Amino acid sequence: QGRLVESGGGLVQAGGSLRLSCAASGRTFRSYAMGWFRQAPGKEREFVAAITGSGGSTDYADSVAGRFTISRDSAKNAVYLQMNSLKAEDTAVYYCAARPYSLATRQEQLYDYWGQGTQVTVSS
């Protein structure tokens, strides 16, 4: 069984930065596509960013493109989300997800493994 654990969330002022980490354990996720999703209060969970199993290709939601960067360290079995120029509307619980294919996708139903989430709160 694989397990994903997110960390790095917290309270930050608008315009600030945070770096989220997702540590994988229980199995290797090195060839798995990884994604970040978020869910704001009263809203559906939405796609944020994804990276292929090789790490050679990334994809971003329009709302975060140019501000967020997804990356992975296969040796550490981890994926990261660097968030810059944060806005109040970025406030949400952020989830890490993995799927047993190299190809990344925005569709959350295609991810098999999920973390418990980490809260990000941006004050305006």
Task: Give the key terms.
124 residues; 11 strands; mainly beta
Care to give the gist of this entry?
It contains no helices and eleven strands. It has 124 residues and is mostly beta strands. The strands form two sheets. Strands 2, 4, 5, 6, 9, 10 and 11 form a seven-stranded mixed beta sheet that branches.
Any overview of this molecule?
The chain is mainly beta. Helices cover 0% and strands 49% of the residues. Strand 4 and strand 5 (46-51) form a beta hairpin. The radius of gyration is 13 Å and the shape is globular.
Please tell me how large the radius of gyration is: 13 Å
What portion of the residues fall into strands of 2 or more residues?
A: over 45%
What is the overall pLDDT average? 96
Report the sheet with the most strands, covering strand number, pairing sense and barrel closure: 7 strands, mixed
Helix fraction bin: under 10%
Taking the alpha carbons of the first and last residues, their distance comes to 40 Å
Task: Let me know the number of strands.
Answer: 11
SSE ordering:
EEEEEEEEEEE
- The stretches of 5 or more residues where confidence is low (pLDDT under 50) are none
Dominant shape: globular
Instruction: Output the number of helix runs.
Output: 0
Class per helix and strand makeup: mainly beta
